[in-house]
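Renewal narrative, Specific Aim 1. Our central claim is that a sequence can be written position by position from structural information alone. The example that follows is taken directly from our test logs and has not been curated for this report. It begins with the structure tokens describing the chain, in the order in which they were read.
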């Protein structure tokens, strides 16, 4: 009897789904076993606030369809239980029930979980917004009526939650221990401008400020702030970011995430990782970085799945970037805002705000407020410069940027030429 190969995918979000799809696309006819304690199709975490607000229904937040349809399409064996450990050297998956199974290859796609700061609070008094279950809980509270809210974490998710609550009529206070909004994406002048616009809209903010305790007093919560203040509120939402789910993996290199190469391979033969649990190539630094974006997870999952099925595929990496819209503003950040260099702010006559960090004839980070039409072109040029070195900007792209008021010197910096 011919030996039938068995592959395992542990975790089934965007990376896991794309891994399974790529495995079948590359003609793997063996068994695919998926470990997931969730009985619905993969969810896009970035759409959860739209569901909570009623702007999207549940199906729209699960872009790959139902779990049953996915199982049928890809011939998956589903294990509806939590995997608690993976012996990467032996390729053995162990579950909470004590069951152990050995596989020929394994894709770890366990994602990330919300980070909770170390302040004193009852878990039931806090809201996190990571999955549809979290969003459903917030949706019910909004339907019941919220008059005030504190959002801990001036992250992209934090601001989207603040917008959602503010639009529902709540008095919102956004707090963060960092010195400014979007601390891992924004440059200082841009952060100041966003803060000003949010304050004008009516969202209160307090930076260098965290919570020390949340206590319940009847139907209300009292939040003690690290600056000595106290706030009476209906709801406390925690949006300080995520931590990669890596504790399950044994015998491979783990930094902030599971470290992988361009083929999405870990250090253990036959074991791959993809998505928010892993640390892939950062094009800008040449090192590895967690880049927790939906599209990135998809690329990584496809690369892992293709290689598991016998292809020879690489994903050369991505850059740190954020693209979001809130309170009528488009905000885009490309590149690492921690890098040194000359900083310059531009207020374009089209109403667009830009701030750059340049070193030599290269932009290392750029923030954009106000025009999503130019963002795709700028991102494309930014990445092309990193991958291929200095180049003369495409005449059509340059003309489109100029038409939107982008200064010639920025266009030149994006290409690394003296286009001025």
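The sequence written for that structure reads:
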């Amino acid at each position: 009897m011919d030996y039938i190969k068995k592959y395992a995918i542990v975790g089934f979000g965007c990376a896991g789904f794309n891994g399974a799809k790529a495995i079948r696309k590359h003609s793997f006819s063996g068994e695919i076993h998926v470990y997931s304690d969730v009985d619905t199709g993969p969810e896009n975490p970035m759409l959860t606030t739209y569901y909570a607000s009623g702007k999207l229904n549940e199906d729209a937040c699960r872009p790959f369809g139902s779990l049953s349809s996915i199982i049928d399409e890809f011939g998956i064996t589903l294990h509806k239980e939590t995997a608690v450990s993976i012996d990467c050297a032996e390729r053995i998956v162990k579950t909470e029930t004590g069951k152990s199974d050995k596989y020929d290859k394994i894709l770890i796609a366990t994602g990330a979980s919300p980070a909770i700061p170390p302040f004193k609070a009852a878990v039931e008094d806090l809201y996190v917004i990571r999955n549809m279950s979290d969003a459903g809980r917030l949706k019910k509270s909004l339907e019941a009526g919220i008059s005030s809210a504190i959002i801990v974490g001036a992250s992209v998710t934090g601001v989207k939650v603040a917008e959602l609550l503010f639009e529902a009529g709540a008095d919102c206070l956004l707090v963060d221990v960092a010195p400014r909004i979007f601390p891992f994406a924004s440059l200082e002048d841009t952060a100041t401008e966003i803060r000003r616009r949010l304050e004008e809209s009516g969202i209160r903010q307090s930076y260098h400020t965290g919570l020390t305790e949340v206590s319940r007093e009847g139907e209300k919560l009292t939040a003690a702030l690290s600056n000595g203040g106290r706030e009476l509120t209906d709801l406390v939402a925690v949006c300080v970011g995520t931590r990669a789910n890596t504790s399950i993996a044994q015998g491979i290199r783990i930094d902030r995430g599971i470290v992988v190469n361009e083929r999405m391979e870990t250090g253990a033969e036959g074991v791959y990782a993809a998505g928010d649990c892993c640390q892939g190539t950062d094009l800008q630094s040449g090192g590895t970085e967690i880049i927790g974006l939906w599209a990135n997870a998809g690329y990584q999952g496809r690369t892992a799945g293709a290689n598991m099925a016998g292809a020879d595929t690489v994903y050369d990496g991505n850059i740190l970037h954020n693209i979001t819209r809130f309170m009528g503003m488009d905000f885009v950040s490309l590149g690492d805002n921690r890098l040194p260099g000359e900083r310059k702010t531009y207020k374009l006559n089209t109403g667009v705000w830009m701030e750059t960090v340049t070193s030599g004839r290269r932009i290392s980070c750029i923030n954009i407020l106000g025009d999503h039409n130019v963002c795709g072109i700028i991102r494309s040029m930014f990445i092309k410069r990193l991958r291929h070195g200095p180049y003369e900007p495409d005449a059509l792209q340059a003309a489109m940027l100029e038409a939107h008021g982008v200064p010639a010197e920025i266009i030149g910096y994006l290409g690394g030429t003296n286009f001025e």
